[in-house]
Amino acid sequence: YQFSDETTIEISVTVKNQGYLDSPVAMLKILQNNEQIAIDEIPSLLPSQSWEIAFPNIEIINGNNMFFAKIIIENDENNNSDSLEIFLPFTFGTILVNEFMFQPLSGNAEFIEIYNSSEDAIDLFGWSIRDASGKDATIEEPIFLAQNEYFVICDDAQIFIQFPDIQNALVLDDFPALNNSGDSIFLLQPDSSIVDSLIFSTNWGDQKGVSIEKTNLHLASNFAENWRLCIDEAGATPGKKNSVVFTEFPENVGIKISPNPFQPAIESTIISWKMPYPSIAITIEIFDVNGRKMLRLLNHESENGDSYVLWDGSTDFGDAPRGLYLVSAEISDTKTGKLHKFLDYVVVAR
User: Between β-strands 150-154 and 169-171, what pairing exists: parallel, antiparallel or unpaired?
Assistant: First the structure.
């Protein structure tokens, strides 16, 4: 086979008569994942004669693609078919780590929950998880994860007792035990390329029997500010929507960034906020796309829930290079202590 672009291939098939007599006319069928995609007639071949045909522009999907070339001859006693397996890697972030338990109560299970953010069902056969030590645990059975569906990989069947409503879960005997002091989690697809990863520490959350949940599926998994301790009374929410949900406000409440994009050589961008409280405590920080904190722009209490701050593009490491940056704002009501978090992007254009 030969790749002609990102999602199509050309398959060439060569048929050779290895017998001592002329071969009869036959049919060649090409099947992709058990569905016929092409058919052609093979002419009669002399002994040792070969015949070749090409099938261009065959679309392949992300994941495993199994092709069969099947020759059909009347009264043929040997009807075995040749096969070819092709794996097209998924892009980074197709499946995401969404929740993990690294400090379970005694006798309970450690687990890692993943989420399918793509538009297609994905076969998890051959997928694996890895920790910082390099130990892998691989899924060795066909499991199809539908769009927007959760799946839990764990180390102990106790999880089915602790969470009796859980459905999509699999116990792996070689599950890599996550260190209580912090560890890494890598999600790998069958070709061993990484689809999602994170490096966590106890700063992300340090409470025994309580999982760490992602607050926003659309932000990087390695971004520490995107994770919080589970607040569900069960201590975790494996196999379902996370418990950490920040209060949603009307459209005109929260933070706004303008101009966006902005050119620091010409102007600053205005990060404004509007909250329904007379007095707030506010912290605004700037991160790069890899989750590295570039600057704490603001950290104070304000008598005004409606104000702004300017960012001129400078950071603790010098002027911010051109690119995308994450603005994280934590705003709390000083009277009740109720905390809200807002995340937005800003583009630096130079």
Answer: parallel
User: Amino acid letter at 304?
Assistant: N
| DSSP state string for 216-232 | -TTS-TT-GGGEEE--S
Enclosing H/E stretch for 159: helix 159-162
How does pLDDT run across 259-283, given as a tens digit for each residue?
A: 999 999 999 999 998 887 778 889 9
Provide the pLDDT for residue 218: 67
What tokens does 337 get? Answer: 């202590």
Q: Confidence band (pLDDT; 50, 70, 90) for 303? A: low
Rounded to 5°, angle at Cα 326 from 129 and 309: 155
Give the Å distances, CA to CA, from 217 to 92, 189, 197, 245, 341: 13, 19, 13, 12, 15
Contact (CB, 8 A) for 198 and 99: no
Q: State the residue for tokens 């705003």.
A: 331
